[in-house]
Specification:
Layout lengths: L8 E4 L9 H19 L3 H19 L2 H7 L3 H4 L9 H23 L6 H17 L7 H8 L4 E6 L3 H10 L8 E4 H4 L6 H11 L6 E5 L2 H9 L4 E5 L15 E3 L5 H4 L1
Parallel strand pairs: 1-2, 1-4, 2-3, 4-5, 5-6
Helix pairs in contact: 1-2, 1-6, 2-5, 5-6
């Protein structure tokens, strides 16, 4: 991708683009399960996979899956989010989330013949604490944003519930870099829905040809943006094989620092 002479704004995804997410979630699960290993001798990896299985099963059984898919949230948010907001689905989840969290860990431990309600609640609380300690930026995130913000306006479009995404942004001190932040949980729809990209452009008064989207997910971030004419830059840290049946990004990078060469 050559330097865009008409580029005015760079839009970023948040999770696994600017902030470590998947690795942080996995590490938090393993750290929490390790406590059960120390107390009861349960294999850490086995419990980890058992918890994930029960998390998905119970989540799918009580939430409006279509709504959750629309805003891009999954069972792991249910294990640590507060689900603040006025949408009836958020209220529904918020009212039931303490029971959900307890039941996930209770059911997982029951498979190892453990019945300890006090310990279950300890694991519930520990997972959220462990994950919050792991809300960190990729090493190059802040320096890249600082340099890019000297010449371009920056915006953010992220899928997720409002309280968690704001917590991540505040803890990692990213808020000051963005002219506008769009969170799917506040709008009722998220990436790859073209509406969330258009909403951001409209809020900024920018046309699609003056914007570029940077994200780690080909389908949600890149294809979604390209649908309304925004160029898409795929950050492919793990150097996955490009799946051209999804979409072809306008550029591909393995580190955010490479954006400084593109622009």
């Amino acid at each position: 991708m050559n330097k865009l002479e008409n580029l005015k704004i760079i839009i970023f995804d948040l999770d696994d683009t600017l902030i470590v997410e998947v690795a942080a979630v996995e590490a938090a699960f393993l750290a929490t399960c390790e406590l059960a290993h120390k107390k009861y001798g349960i294999d850490t990896e086995n419990l980890y996979h058992t918890v994930k299985s029960h998390g998905r099963q119970l989540w799918n059984a009580f939430v409006d899956i279509e709504y959750c898919n629309n805003i891009g949230i999954g069972y792991w948010e249910g294990l640590w989010g507060n689900f603040i907001g006025d949408h009836h689905n958020l209220k529904f989840i918020r009212d039931r989330i303490p029971t959900y969290r307890y039941q996930v860990w209770y059911n997982a431990l029951a498979e190892f013949q453990i019945n300890d309600s006090i310990f279950v609640q300890k694991l519930v609380d520990l997972f959220g604490n462990e994950l919050r300690q792991r809300l960190v930026l990729f090493p190059e995130t802040e320096s890249t944003l600082k340099q890019l913000s000297q010449n371009y306006s920056l915006a953010l479009i992220t899928n997720g519930i409002s309280d968690l995404q704001h917590e991540k942004l505040e803890k990692t001190h990213l808020l000051a870099y963005f002219q506008h932040i769009t969170i799917s949980g506040e709008e009722g729809f998220g990436k790859p829905d073209p509406r969330i990209f258009k909403l951001t452009l409209d809020k900024l008064g920018i046309s699609a040809e003056n914007a570029v989207m940077v994200g780690d997910n080909l389908s949600r971030d890149i294809k979604g943006a390209q649908k309304i004419g925004i160029r898409g830059i795929w950050i492919n840290r793990s150097r996955k094989t490009l799946s051209q049946d999804i979409c072809i990004p306008d550029a591909q990078i393995s580190s955010l620092i490479e954006l400084l060469k593109l622009f």
